Amino acid sequence: MTAPRTVLVTGASSGFGAAVVRRFAQDGARVVAAARRADRLAGLAAELGAGVLPVVLDVTDPEAVTRILGDLPEQFAAIDVLVNNAGLALGLEPAQRADLADWDRMIDTNCRGLVHVTRAVVPGMVERGGGQVINLGSVAGSYPYPGGNVYGATKAFVHQFSLNLRSDLHGTGVRVTCVEPGMAATEFSAVRFAGDQEKAEAVYDGMLPLTADDVADTIHWVATRPAHVNVNTIELMPTAQSFAAFQVARG
Q1: Which region, left, alpha or beta, applies to residue 124 given φ > 0 means left and ψ of -120 to 50 means alpha?
Q2: Is residue 67 in a domain?
Q3: How many CB atoms are located within 10 Å of the residue 164 CB?
């Protein structure tokens, strides 16, 4: 089991993405760290050294995805592992009160952004006869909860897209995995609640959630299996979290 040579991580400026960059960089891999926040990326590159290439990229801009990923420096251009991590949840209102702009942004980032990045990278993997796509799904794609509406639907899309991508890539040597975490203490809830830190912290009150490092370790494990092993889907939750009970309206 050796570290992949070159790894591209989207949403790399914080949370799971930053932890994944650090985990692969520890093994000496070259890592393309892509995200919107240039200052965060610069800090990550300064911390980890020349093996990390910071790339300012908004995955919701298809022209930028094609241009920037098609013009990477030669030593970073042949991507062995793509970690499609960029994504977000916005709001927790029921569908009848939800903000359509929030819905559109989740679809643009979690679905359209993911597929555009994948389409930009996968042909090179096929040409080279190997590689791996690791998509960040969520338990929200399998288990509904009040207010999860479009966020959960986007992650169900990621799950099914991963399975179909694996079918399309059959025989090419390119592997595909969907990693589906449960509750994790990152900036996720702060983003969902528009920066309301009190609401964000209340999500994890009295329980021990997953950490970004837990998820990064899982992704690293998936990526370092022998070439003949494909982990199709892996789901992880904190021990304190389980499956939701059925909702029952009474009276």
Answers
A1: alpha
A2: yes
A3: 11
Distance CA 195, CA 199 (A): 9
Nearest Cα neighbor of 106 from 94, 118, 114, 96 is 114
Other C-beta atoms closer than 10 Å to the C-beta of 237 total: 17
Q: pTM of the prediction? A: 0.95
User: Could you report the per-residue pLDDT of 152-198, keeping only the tens digit for each?
Assistant: 999 999 999 999 999 999 999 999 999 999 999 887 777 787 787 88
Task: Give me the catalytic one of 143, 145, 151, 204.
Answer: 151
Q: How far apart are alpha carbons 61 and 66 in whole angstroms?
A: 9
Q: Could you read off the pLDDT of 214-239 as tens digits, one per residue?
A: 999 999 999 999 999 999 999 999 99
143 is catalytic: no
| Total domain count, the chain | 1
Q: What is the CATH number of the domain that holds 152?
A: 3.40.50.720
